[in-house]
Write a sequence for this structure.
């Protein structure tokens, strides 16, 4: 697969400035950017008030301006300068309020006095501003003029979707891999412009992949209400979701964090753990019903095999949900490492199968098939070749139809890629059954 | 539940002085004390010679007096002064014996020279005295007069039983919780006046508990032969014993020791382990076929889910089976902590069930039901509430009919009580199915 | 069982000097030695060219002489002086070759300059010499005369087999224990004259064992092609192989190494692990598809419960496959310890069964059957007897038809032999069901 750290970073730069929320112009502008970068991209619009599972699609919210001014007219807080300043879904207000009243509507971070937090109040209609502790300390006047010009009314929830069909499906109706990316946050680079960027490049590369046993579906949705809306409208698809991954916070320089699906031992969980252990480092953390849209995919009624890949995990880095999650925090190298991790996952998903030896009684004679060292008895002629020989022997020995390539890699303590290569060689030598389908 | 450390200790003081053995006047006197303290208490009498499983109810044994005297008539050892002096089931004897002969019948503790041991010989008819090593060192005369006035002959084995029926049974024939207390030891305070005291207070409190899904049965029995007799006479009940606990040595200041049932993963085993781990400290030890009446309940043919709760376990404290197991060794605080541990167990037994979400597809919208924080995106508004929120989310997420509240507590790493409270709140909000039955 | 360290060592001394390969006069001479030491020993001859599984029985190879000479006729390397000098299956050659050409056919150990390695090239027809690095350094002439007089042509592959039938079979067709010994290596004492010696003494002793529930089959075979040949000709027997052990490198002073079967939890795996843990020390290593003939027995189609016992494992001792694997490296004590380990294994194999208590409801009254201590209540009269008492109680408690004696030994943390003795005592007292069959 081909992309570059720079290409990924440029997407982030393009996406970052847009003011997004769970509905409204910003998320639609972002979806259009993704559409421009890819092909066959569909944008869905679901009307406010539509019932989706236990929820209702909310009214659409758009912001024209939001300021706090001194009574002399001087602007002290302006959403136009930093789009984190406004609590999402703030209702319109145009009033002079006392400092005491104003402070009830302010959010700041006492321990990070220079940072502006990001806050929302989607379902509890109120208004509020986010600002740094230093900015707040300077609000010493007795009264301020608050001017929030937002529109909240019937409209649409918008989300994007791409389906890249299998070229060589193993079943009549190809199973799917589901990638889910939330794109409802405003100017936060890691959370989640990073994942949008990586998803764009994955889509481009998957389209060019010559053989795909599975279909790949990408969702670009507002968090929570977006996945709930998609799930409500696509229940017939869910039985075909064989693997799934929520992508979030994938651009910083931390090591990978894979959060398991609720199932805990789904194939995607085992693949990701193998990559963490053998290649990419990082950590595997157990499922918990908090975080991103895996909460919905992994609700007990659906219980889909959907994990979540992050680098520094949500809530565990200082920049999380603050103005410090900016273009300095995300790096080309971090983005590219995430892209490569996911392409490794795709490789495992496509390559893994349950091999079955065609010569299971005793070892087949590898020598006459050119698969064995010539001189027996010593170590000196093993060297680098011994590694491959053991991988080959393990693959043959466990090719009983009950062990996947991953099972073999784990038992043999070899990288999956080496076992997959050995299985290819054995298949070409006529010793392994081809995968069915 | 209500009692007090002092009430528990007073029972021990009342029970301690009585001379008990596996049959005879002392155990009957003890059963009458328990009967006086409770209601609907039944005392059963089983005739000597009755076949019970592989055993036979022994003859009844009573002691009138037992002394060792110098040939000048001076009493040197007197059962009336300390009722541990006589080996249980000693046969009558009235004879002058040489010191050499006498010593064959003496039991003492070389390493604890001031303590008198407790010894029995129920099924091997002999006689003997227990005394301190210091007392024994003073027996320097050539001859002594031994005078044991015991009666051993046909009579009865007596045991007590209380059944507190379920108020809200989940089945037509309510399942039972079995508590078993041995009360065949003479003046040993921890082993087992302590457990008799706690059982009395449990009976009183369980009677007043407004809702009991299960019935509670308490047995006050002589060790080994008592449980064998009860088992032989109550085989039709055993299929209803869902949980059981042998109570022993529950009054000292050591931390709790829970000994698992033979099954090892019975519900009672998991409940007790959870309490040890999350609330009370102490240790869980695996089953072994030695100890108290769990040996009988956990014999392979019955294999009942019966564990054993102790504080300092049998044989592992210096006072065990000696005159130092007295009213100083048992404390009001130790007794009360044991009582509370068991009431926690009862709470878990009554409260646990397999919840099932009524909205399993996606998360139900907690906000409009008043179960979710209002402002999203930050940590500062989580605080103490976040704990509850995670418990709530875990309970919903695992409410698939395949996880008990305890399973959820373990997976979520939360106290059972918190999960039970969350399940109550969710049930009241119409999100969880009520327990059936 | 009876033998002695000296008897075992004498066999090694007798076997060591013979030049063996996978076919030819040397392996036949060795089989005749074994035949002379035992009874009912069968030697099988399989013609070259016979198809066996995926392989073909190779031509027979014999050596008359092999030398490297200086052009003045001085012998510098002579197979007659050390039979490791010739690469096995070297083709005949009689030619003057340049030093450069000669060196392509030489094998030596740079890190062990005094040792001559052992090398083979069974299926890749070539010629070669093995020599020490010091010998090689002295080959400074420009040309040498190479003279290899070998015969390679149709003949036979020979292997030996003994079946010691069960005296008290548990089934109509007695199950078998398979011992497999490779005997295709030339003068290497540990690998594998040691195992041939031990196998001879096991055969002698098993014949004299009064009660054998199982049959014992010993194979003396050339490595790889021998086991493949035997497997190809005996597929009807394989279903009766209940336990199997490859014996290799059993004479050095290292601690035992048991390599598990592919199944990993076969009875033989558990028996060997118990002996390592409780009696003999050493280590248990997992199966891998490399090593000795277990590779064939444990190929996925057969998947027999065959482990491999060694002391220092193949490839992990400095003397492995070199001239230092000689009569100094193998010791009488090492041989004898291996013999005793295997006789312990045989004892477990013969003794283990699933006991079933005839009195499973409550404990049977052990006292009246003479199986319980007389005085209850103390520790002092337990002592050594307590060990046995706990073993007895565990055996009774777990005698539910679902636990083998080994299961009981592991759960009770007692040696298997103690549990077997307890089971015997309980059977004699009428408390345990005899094993069926």
């Amino acid at each position: 697969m081909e992309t570059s750290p720079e290409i990924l970073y440029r997407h982030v730069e393009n996406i970052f400035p847009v003011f997004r929320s769970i509905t409204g112009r910003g998320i639609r502008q972002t979806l259009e950017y993704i559409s421009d970068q890819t092909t066959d991209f569909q944008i869905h619009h679901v009307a406010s008030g539509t019932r989706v599972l236990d929820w209702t699609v909310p009214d659409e919210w758009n912001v024209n301006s939001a300021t706090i001014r001194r009574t002399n007219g001087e602007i002290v807080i302006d959403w136009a300068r930093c789009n984190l300043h406004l609590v999402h879904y703030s209702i319109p207000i145009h009033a002079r309020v006392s400092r005491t009243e104003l402070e009830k509507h302010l959010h700041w971070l006492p321990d990070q006095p220079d940072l502006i937090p990001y806050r929302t109040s989607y379902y509890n209609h109120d208004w509020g501003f986010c600002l740094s502790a230093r900015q707040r300390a300077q609000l010493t006047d007795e009264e301020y003029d608050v001017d929030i010009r937002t529109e909240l009314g019937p409209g649409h929830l918008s989300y994007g979707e791409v389906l890249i069909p299998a070229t060589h499906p193993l079943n009549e109706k190809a199973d799917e891999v589901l990638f889910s990316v939330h794109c409802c946050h405003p100017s936060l680079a890691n959370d989640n412009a990073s994942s949008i960027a990586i998803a764009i490049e994955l889509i481009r590369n998957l389209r060019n992949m010559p053989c795909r046993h599975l279909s790949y579906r990408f969702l670009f949705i507002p968090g929570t209400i977006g996945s709930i809306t998609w799930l409500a409208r696509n229940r017939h698809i869910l039985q075909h979701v064989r693997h799934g991954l929520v992508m979030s916070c994938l651009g910083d320089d931390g090591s990978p964090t894979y959060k398991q699906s609720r199932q805990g031992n789904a194939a995607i969980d085992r693949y990701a753990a193998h990559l963490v252990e053998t290649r990419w480092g990082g950590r595997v953390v157990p499922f918990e019903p908090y975080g991103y849209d895996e909460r919905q995919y992994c609700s007990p009624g659906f219980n889909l095999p959907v994990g979540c890949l992050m680098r520094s995990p949500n809530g565990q880095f200082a920049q999380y949900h603050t103005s410090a999650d900016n273009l300095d925090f995300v790096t080309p190298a971090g983005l590219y490492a995430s892209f490569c991790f996911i392409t490794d996952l795709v490789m495992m998903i496509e390559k893994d199968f349950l091999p079955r030896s065609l010569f299971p009684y005793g070892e087949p004679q590898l020598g006459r098939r050119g698969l064995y060292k010539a001189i027996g008895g010593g170590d000196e002629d093993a060297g680098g070749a011994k590694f491959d020989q053991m991988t080959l022997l393990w693959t043959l020995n466990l090719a009983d139809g009950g062990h996947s390539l991953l099972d073999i890699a784990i038992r043999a303590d070899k990288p999956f890629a080496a076992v997959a290569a050995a299985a290819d060689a054995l298949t070409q030598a006529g010793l392994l059954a081809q995968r069915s389908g």
Remarks:
- DSSP finds twelve helices and 16 strands in chain C.
